[in-house]
Specification:
Largest sheet: 4 strands, antiparallel
Number of domains: 1
Order of helices and strands: HEEHHEHEHHH
Distance between the termini: 30 Å
Strand content: 5-15%
Shape: globular
Number of strands: 4
Radius of gyration: 14 Å
Number of helices: 7
Structural class: alpha+beta
Strand order of the largest sheet: 1-2-4-3
């Protein structure tokens, strides 16, 4: 399993929400991106807009320029999806492998840790936003 720091670096701020992208989640869960997205689309009622949204062209371009070390997987047909903390939690109800369960627990712990850090360091949170 990946170290917490590897998970933290995959959390980014988009539309005012801390999110993880479908590309990063698929890697963490050990599945192909298309498998993750297909599972989500088969269960779309579990993913309202405040749980998941697709990046627009500008958001995707901005993230690519900020995260130069990330592998974006060659040619894409569609922009990645962004999952909020609640969306990541919901993924655990559709991906049921042992690895997915372990990764969900680790990711939820990181989100909780970040929420604690931001709530105790208001000035830092303000600067990051």
């Amino acid at each position: 399993m990946k170290k917490p720091g590897a998970i933290e670096k995959n959390i980014c701020l988009v539309r005012g929400h801390r999110v993880m992208l479908s590309t990063h989640l698929a890697e963490l869960y050990g599945v192909e991106v298309k498998v993750l997205v297909q599972a989500v689309k088969r269960n779309i009622d579990r993913f309202p807009e405040d749980f998941m949204f697709q990046l627009n062209e500008l958001e995707f371009k901005n993230l690519k320029s900020q995260i130069v070390t990330s592998s974006w997987g060659g040619i894409r047909r569609a922009n990645p999806y962004a999952f909020t903390e609640q969306g990541v939690a919901m993924i655990s109800s559709i991906l049921r492998s042992k690895r997915a369960i372990q990764m969900n627990i680790a990711i939820m712990r990181i989100f909780v840790k970040l929420r604690y850090i931001f709530s105790t360091h208001k000035e830092l949170a303000y600067k990051l936003n």
